[in-house]
Amino acid sequence: MQPYELTVAEAAEAVRTRTVSPVELVNSALERIARVQPRLRAFTAVTADRARATARQAETELAEGIHRGPLHGIPAGLKDLIDVAGLPTTASSRVRNGHRAQTDSTVAARLASAGTALVGKTHTHEFAYGLTTPQTVNAWHPERVAGGSSGGSAVAVAAGAAAFALGTDTGGSIRVPAALNGVVGLKPTYGLVPRHGVTSLAWSLDHVGPLTRTVEDAALVLAALVGHEPRDPASTPAPAVDYRPGPGTDLTGLRVGVPGNYYFDHVDPEVEAAVRRAIGRLEELGARLVDVEIPMTRYIRATQWGLMVPEATAYHERTLREVPDLYGTDVRVLLEAGELLSAGDYLRAQRARTLMRQAWQDMLEAVDLIAAPTVPLTAVNVGRTSVTWGDGSVESVPEAYVRLSAPANLTGVPSLSVPVGLDAAGLPIGMQLMGRPFGEAALLRAGHAYERTGTALGPPPEPAA
User: What integer pLDDT is reported at residue 457 of this predicted model?
Assistant: First the structure.
């Protein structure tokens, strides 16, 4: 096994016991990037010199008995919406040509304090306003979409180019690419991870979270990110929680809600079958399955777009007027559409979201978490724009990918996507676990227990030379 193949937990133990050095880890990751980046295009920039300098510092500190924790010397990527002092934050857009961050974002500063080695900034769908990340290709198949908007982060982790990466999630942008690339993606509770210094898409829906190869790794990264940040108005104090899941797989006493509506409607049969098998596995581990009814489903789509579109347009108001031609056509059209929505439309969406949050809170009193598909279909071919379901209805690809992930953004509840198999084309399928606000520990416990039953997908096929 090469060092780049180690999970965060494995690499942390190897570093702690001095069996692998941070320099070896980082060099292995950079060599991996050199191999896969020309084909996968996960990174906007590779920060090799910076990563090597951090690795050398980590090695010196460890030799002096200074150990900063499980992320010390671990190679990581950051979605290129996240400010790192002295580096460009391009948002994968020509609008940001010449931009350079003056200070670290809160999450970048916390990772630096933990000793993480930044190997590069990863591609996003332009300004995170899309579900495909067209610059990047899927880690499992070069003719399939990576998913978005944190597509670069998901592909980098899946391909072994980073031990973990951070993404952002406004309507599914961590969990969608995680599911499509066979990795773990965690959208924490709204406000748990600070967003100061992170380019916004829609302030009331934006989240920052990790993409990793295992659930245990997601817990280790999350622990380094949480904590109140007064410069983020939505930031909340972190509860005193040990996010690390235990070694066992016993889920006795855990109540898992299985939706009877919405989440299994208009879902590819292979996806539904794989997720239902995974839910059955949770039951075999001791969990009790409880039928639940998802509330207010007819309002989900309108509320998501009614919040996201005007908030995004407000953020881009000045540059949309000054340099509209620098935006990609798909993003510019959405930003211009936001100018047509009234204040009344926005307020109605806010009211609907408030009612939806309360309805979900009531629903979650009966269960500890809800299990459902992350996305209704696996990665589509690049350039495909729509999907036709069995009843003849047609849905655009972005709407299909956001449909099952948006409720967790609207309600602010935590959501974890875990790989649960491959379809007949060899493409990953994801299961989504959603819990109560600040209930990340329950999701991580269940996801980790499922993972330990020997259901890991393994790495994707090697890219063709």
Answer: 87
